[in-house]
Please model this.
Amino acid sequence: MLRGGTSNDYYLTANNNQSSSQELKELFEDVGEFGDGYRLTESVKRRSHLWFGPKGTCTQLHHDLTNNMLLQVYGRKKITLIPAFQVPNVYNDSHVYSAVDFPNVDLERYPKMSGVTPLEVILNPGEAIFIPIGWWHQVESLDISISVSFTDFRAKNNFFSNFPRQVIEL
Ligand SMILES: O=C(O)CCC(=O)C(=O)O
Model:
């Protein structure tokens, strides 16, 4: 990680959580509570997600199927957010992803993208951002970066069970 320079070729993401849970167990012993009763206390150490990558990782424009809290531990990330109510303009393509190569938008191909108003946030170490369900976001690391995210809020947060898994062509 230290020698590789800017790259989007390797990135330990939350998607590896299941397969690496044993290896990450010790690290997650360090994860503490967030706020007062914000999370389900019993799952803090099991349901935290680790993101570790070099400067230059890019998680493409997508939306999540849960509300999500992203906490920055080390390095900075640039988060670009597009409000949920602008979904008709973002060209949802495969699953939760946009077809658009953001931010290098080809407006001839994706003209409705001119109707979105992206918000840019720099997340510094020690800061957290709440990403509400349905809000589109793209995340780029500006430095070697370590983040932790969680979705086990002490509130309803299952918006994936009823999410359509098949695109029906009309
Ligand atoms: O930090 C990242 O690279 C992506 C985070 C993200 O998009 C998410 O947690 O949904």
Notes: Residues 63 and 136 are 4 Å apart (CA to CA). The domain at 14-150 is CATH 2.60.120.650 (Jelly Rolls). The first strand starts at residue 48 and ends at 53.
